[in-house]
Every structure is written in structure tokens, then in C-alpha cells.
Q: What sequence folds into this?
């Protein structure tokens, strides 16, 4: 059933080769070859909830993408699989905070960092403490917990040249992860449209 679904998605995408924006939300699990041989030469904006391990070849084959929205990593190994992808063309990035250190984004002007796995103990202050250089960054949006009292200090130290900052606070007690992720995904979907 998964293979048929992958073949159907690939066939459907081949019928619209000139699209410049694609938002692809599919139920899990997905076949690792779901985007194999998909070519969209005009694609500028790509958003997906697909696991990051199915994206490296697709992203490498689409250097025209300048706006990238990534859902939860879902990697079964330590580290994000996207660390091998050349991202020098990405200008706008929306990503889980734990995947940020996996790659370098020298052209990113707008960055949205999210906490998808609320039970993993990842704190935005830790992400900001270890953030790579973003020489072009001007706009930042972050999720953080209400007990991260020094979050603004971390933002100021890590990214002193920001022009715009948006902050989304979450309670430090743990909600049901699925409810929190669903709420976050609904918000982000509205932001993409």
C-alpha cells in the first residue's frame, strides 16, 4: 500500500512540473523513495512533514528552492540527515531547532525555529548557545519554554544584528506531545498560506 501511494504521489507531481510552490503533508509512514526522480525545475518554496531522511536527494536536485519549511525530523539515528545537503541557496527556513546544527545556511534572512519534540528536553536557549553563524539573518521566530528566563540574552548574544524577533512561549510542564505538535502544526500551516 505504501509503494502504491508513493508511485501515485510521484505520478501526480509529474503532471504539474512547472509549479513553484509545493506543500506536501502526508500521513506516516512513507516510503523512502517517495520523492525519487521527482523533478520540479521551477520549485522555489517547499514545505513538508516528510521525515528528513527522505529529503536529501530531493533537496539536492532542487537548488531553485529558496524557501524551505521542514516538519519534525523523525530520524532514527542521532543527528539530522540533512547535514549533507548544500543549503547555500536557502533564504527562508522553517525548521525544528534540533536540526539546525546539521547544516549551514549562509544566505538565510528569515529563520523560524521550532520545538517539535517537547519530551526530548531540547531548550531553545541551548540551541541559541550553539547556533552557527547566520551573516544574512534579519528575521527570527522561536519557540521557547516559559521557564527560559534568559532567552533574550541568548538571542542578543547569538544574533546581534536581528531586525525582527517573534517569540512563541510554551508552558514548561509537558502537555501531551501529540496535542502540542498538532497545535503547532496547525499554526504553521496557517502561516504558510
A:
Amino acid at each position: 500500500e505504501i509503494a502504491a501511494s508513493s508511485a501515485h504521489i510521484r505520478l501526480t507531481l509529474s503532471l504539474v512540473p512547472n509549479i513553484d510552490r509545493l506543500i506536501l503533508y502526508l500521513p506516516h509512514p512513507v516510503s523512502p523513495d517517495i520523492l525519487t526522480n521527482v523533478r520540479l525545475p521551477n520549485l522555489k518554496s517547499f514545505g513538508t512533514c516528510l521525515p528528513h531522511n527522505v529529503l536529501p536527494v530531493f533537496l539536492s536536485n532542487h537548488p531553485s528552492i529558496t524557501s524551505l519549511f521542514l516538519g519534525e525530523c523523525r530520524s532514527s539515528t542521532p543527528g539530522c540527515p540533512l547535514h549533507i545537503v548544500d543549503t547555500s541557496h536557502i533564504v527562508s527556513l522553517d525548521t525544528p531547532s534540533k536540526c539546525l546544527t546539521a547544516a549551514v545556511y549562509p544566505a538565510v534572512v528569515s529563520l523560524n525555529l521550532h520545538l517539535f519534540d517537547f519530551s526530548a528536553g531540547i531548550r531553545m536557549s541551548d540551541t541559541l548557545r550553539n547556533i552557527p553563524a547566520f551573516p544574512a539573518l534579519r528575521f527570527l521566530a522561536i519557540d521557547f519554554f516559559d521557564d527560559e528566563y534568559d532567552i533574550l540574552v541568548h538571542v542578543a548574544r547569538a544574533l546581534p544584528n536581528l531586525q525582527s524577533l517573534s517569540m512563541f512561549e510554551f508552558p514548561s510542564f509537558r502537555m501531551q506531545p501529540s496535542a502540542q505538535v498538532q497545535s503547532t502544526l496547525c499554526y504553521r500551516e496557517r502561516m504558510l498560506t
